[in-house]
Protein 1
Amino acid sequence: KRKKGAPSIKLAYDPNSRGLFTESVRILCTDIDIMRPQGVTHTVIAMTSMSTGSGKTFLSSNIAAAMADAKKKVLIMDLDLRKRTVSDIFGLKHHVTGISNHLYDESLTLADILHEDIIPGVDIIPAGHIPPNPAALLGRQRVDNLIAALRRPYASVLPGGAPSHAV
């Protein structure tokens, strides 16, 4: 049940389901854990594709929900700065402060752009304002620094919707 004014979240993963899709995502998350090198507790998982509409956002959002369902703290970043698809899935497309603002304005801190427990266990950094040149903005060192800083508090960081050259 959503609180009044809470964002509308559009996910296919259902923690109460034993359906084919939900079980497939759970198996994928288990496989990701198995492939993680011994001693590594924090990972960055990037979905890339050269074509739009291939399911990067859909998959990363549902993987985040499944990992959180397994009691892991997950962060998903909307790096699709033009379409803001991850932000839309989590009902934050129209919140204006996000990753693009953080990359442009060095006075903004992580606390200014982070939305905690958007669903239990999943934090999100929305895309923010649409910049004139997203590729140039995502190429800044500040992206790498931010992702490196986020590895410690999260079991997984998912740069959702990112173009292949951004991660």
Note: The helical segments are 20-35, 56-69, 85-89, 99-104, 110-113, 134-138, 141-151.
Protein 2
Amino acid sequence: HNPASMEVTCYAEVARPDEVTQRLQGLVPHWRSTVGMSDEALAQQVREDGIDILVDLNGHTAGNRLPVFARKPAPVQVTWLGYPNTTGLSAMSYRICDAITDPQGAEAFMSETPLRLPGCFLCYEPPHAALEIVAPPFSEHVTENGPVTFGSFNNLSKLGADVAVAWSRVLGAVPGSRLYLKCAQLSDKEICRRVEKMFADHGIAREH
């Protein structure tokens, strides 16, 4: 932002600051830690700071402060980045997205007005220690490069019965394909057994 026309204040719900926190803190004139603040106290702080546009970076993720936005301490409120779906809050004015994640008509399923950025609503820079790009492990010559491996590193709460059915159909339709699941919940043996059964019920056995 042009500092001559935009004054930036960051509200940081960061319980364990690190090097990234320090770098970001050095980029803005005002930085406020919100850890331990009640929703009402934080909303009042936003009002006292005279914020015109309040941007949410969490959505419905752990540690979010959406109850602050529900109090509408700023006249314009925008959600972006952390949760690629609607907040469901009538107090949230806009949601930053793009034409791929949210094509025309998707606004029927969100409480906010979409602000579609050209290209992608996510902006990434390759890490400085990025590995060299190599050929993918799969091509049309499956026997040369091995089977297709699908993967999901999502929170296991997103894996319901309907998802297991759909993924099982995909695996059945791609001969020799595999599914790699990775998440913290799978460190629990009982949860592993439940997930295995979900797929076994549809003919997909665990590879040992």
Note: The helical segments are 19-25, 39-48, 66-70, 142-145, 161-173, 189-200.
Protein 3
Amino acid sequence: VADDYGVTSLSGRLALRRDGLDPDRIDVESPFLSPAPEFAISMRKVNPRQAEGKSFQDLTEHPWAGLAVDIVVEGTDQAGQSGSSDVVQLVLPERPFSKPLAQALVEQRRNIFFQPDNQRDVVRALTAILVWPKGVVDKSGVYLGIRHAAAKLYRARTHAESREVADILWEIALAIESGNLHDSLKKLQAIKKQLEKALAEGASDEKVADLMKQLREAM
């Protein structure tokens, strides 16, 4: 980025490429495909006239993960003027799952997003996993979590309630795949962003030292 007045903020904006969606697999009118992911980009200096760097954003939990998108980076300067980058086309990365049960739950989570009017099919799929859990479900907590999700989805009458079930399935899949590692990674990324912000805003040495300590402990 570069600007004579100094860049005050940077953000990313995404748009779903609906022309490439498979109508047999994805309901293009699904309400879960409407909210676009957005993110702010931290800069190392306050209002730089020129800056270059990289920013990591984890969007793998968003319903668009795995779908084709257009992405643009937008910047605003101190005079209130804005500018944007060229449009980049890409497939929004998905989080890889290697364990079969986690993969199955994530697939049903996608079905909630992609076919919101076919929730009964998801209920049946989750119930099928529970019919004979031996050799499939290793922990009672996971079994009860899936059972709770299936019952909650069966009773769901709104898209908000269905979204709650999708969130439950995501957390169960993460727990199956990596245990507590996911929570630790989220904490590490949050502290890293706090540290970047503190450095950019010229925070006190004590504040920076405390965040550095937290960062080392999280790592």
Note: The longest strand covers residues 7-16.
